[in-house]
Each structure stands twice: as C-alpha cells, then as structure tokens.
Amino acid sequence: MKISRPIRVRIAPDAILDNYRAVRRHAPKSRAFAVVKADAYGHGQWRAVQALRGEADGFALLECENAVALREAGIDQPILLLEGIFSARDARAVGEYGLSTVIHCPEQLDLLLGNLPPDTAPDICLKLNTGMNRLGFTVATLARARQRLADELPRARLTLMTHFAEADGERGVAWQMERFRALAGDWTGPVCLGNSAAILRHPDAHGDWVRPGIMLYGASPFAETSAAELGLRPAMTLESAIIAVQDLQPGDRVGYGGTFTADRPMRIGVVACGYADGYPRHAPNGTPIAVMGERTRLLGRVSMDMLACDLTGIPDAHIGAPVTLWGHGIGGEVPADEVAAAAGTIAYELFCAVAPRVPVTVDHD
Ligand SMILES: *Cc1c(COP(=O)(O)O)cnc(C)c1O
Fold it and tell me: Could you give the domains of the chain?
C-alpha cells in the first residue's frame, strides 16, 4: 500500500492555453514567444510546451540544451535563447538546430561569428539596453555590431529587441520606447518588445513579437490588479491537507518562536506543507489559505514541513480536510498573488520555488 504525504502541485495545461489566447486578444497584431524559462515558471517546461505547441508562435527559454531538446522532440516553431549563447557549442547548436538567439554584447557576437559558417542564416535578436541596464547594446556598441553582422554573417535575419523595467509601474514604457527609437534609427525590420505587463497595459509597446511569461501561468504582473480581473486562469494549485488539529487556550502559542498567541479559545489545523516544499517561510500571521472551501489565515511561523492555520470558524475541518495553499483546488481558492504579497514577494518566485519533493499531478479536462 502506498501512503503518500497529501501535498500536491496540480497543473492545468488548459489554463495555460486559455491564458495564451488572452495574449492573442491583447496583442492581436503581434506574434508571441511563450516564455517557458525556469521550467515554465515551475509548471514544467515540457508540460507548458505541449499545452501550447498547437498555437504558440514560438517559445523562449534560457538553456541551449533545453532548446535542442525541444527541437529533437519535434517542436518546429522558433525557439529563442533569451540570454543568448554561453559557449562555442551553443553557437554551433544555433546553426545546427535552427535556434533563434539573443545577442546582447560584442563578446557574445564574437562567440557567434567565430563558430558559425558565414553562409548560415540564423535568427538573431539584437538586444538593446534602453534603461534596464542588465543586458544589451548601447549607442557606443550597436552600430559596430550591426556592421559586423552585415559583413560576416550577411544572411542573418535580425530583430531588434529590448526589455521593459517598469511596464507594471508608474514610470511605464514611454521613456524606454524613446531610447529604443533613438538606438534603432532608421530600422524598419521586426522588433520584439512586450513582456506580460506591457502586453496587458501598453498596446503601443508590443512590437512584432511579444514575450509573455507570468500571464501564461495565470498570475498578475501588477501589484494592484488581480489575475481574475485580467481574465487570467491560475495554472498551478498547491494543495495539501490537515494532518493534525489542536485546541488552544488563551495565551497558548503556535510553532517555532511562538510568533502567534491565542487571545481566546481557538482550533488550529496543522497542514502538511512547509518551506521545504516551496512555501515562503516569510509568510506572516494572517497570510490567506483555504480549508474546505473557506478562506482562513496562516498562524505562527512556517516550518520546514508544516504550517498552521486557523480552523476556529471551520468546525467541520478535521484531519484529512483539503487545503489550498494557492491556486484553485478542492480546498478552495487563494490567488498566488495574494500569498506572495503577504510574504513580500511575487507569484513568479512562489511558482519557481515549488520543491522537487512535491509530487505533480496534471489536470486533464
Ligand atoms: C522572463 C522574461 C520575459 C517574461 O516576462 P513576464 O513578466 O513573465 O511576462 C520576457 N522577456 C524577457 C527577456 C525575459 O527574460
């Protein structure tokens, strides 16, 4: 007999597909690279790619070997390396497997040119630094890069690309678009611009290609607008169950450090989920959680394998009662964005942090 710890992460591939269709509606004139980096934000790279393979215009990720694996599995859309190439082997793979690659600095361009025969015709996204100050060519380096490409790899197909630093915030994208236009000069070829926040909020900054990530997974890129308000469906549910119940008297404390003290008689539930499962340890008292369809609150410090929640208002909740840590499950509904906000982070980090020890189940419906 197999007795398993009740924690599960449930992935809904059709939510990912629905969310991709929302990208289409928001950016009807653009093609979209579905961003599946970081194991598709913790949802499983291959699961996300399978969900989207019939509709996505392209996929974007980081590691060349993952791109090659997708090609070998029969994915024939463009596959973009978002940080470009890291080695001569990567450069050769771009040629052999027809990968698209970002090139973001002169050194990376050297690596590409030094390892590709001059008659190859790779798709290259030349990344421009328009204010993020992480990756990208500047006014000092761009002209020479374009000249070298024209001379040494004349059949390369170029796209100009940039990444927005504050598309979700007050400063917006106009200031970066201005710099982009100044850098691009008389460029009339394709441009690749919008992340999820720009797709949803800045229709003038999509470009020929957009690069949605977080919205595919059903979380919001904005602090003040929920995923539900944006019409997005959560693709990940982290769920577990109550494994113990305690009755507390006024003055009793909960968990390590006793950071919660009961001020009246209470019932609390202990949930099989802790920071070693990927739940944020910094989630404070009051972080939302759902038990048997009722929203309640986290109590005390999150420990490695367990956390506690208030069952005072949920008298039917006993051992075995279903719990939703985030997402939409039989335990109830809790947006990942709300858990993240309570813990001082973003849903991106929660999704990526789900630990390998948590079994995955995939919804088919
Ligand atoms: C991760 C990433 C994206 C996706 O961003 P979201 O905010 O998740 O939509 C887009 N472009 C680049 C370059 C990225 O690294």
Answer: 13-217 (3.20.20.10), 236-362 (2.40.37.10)
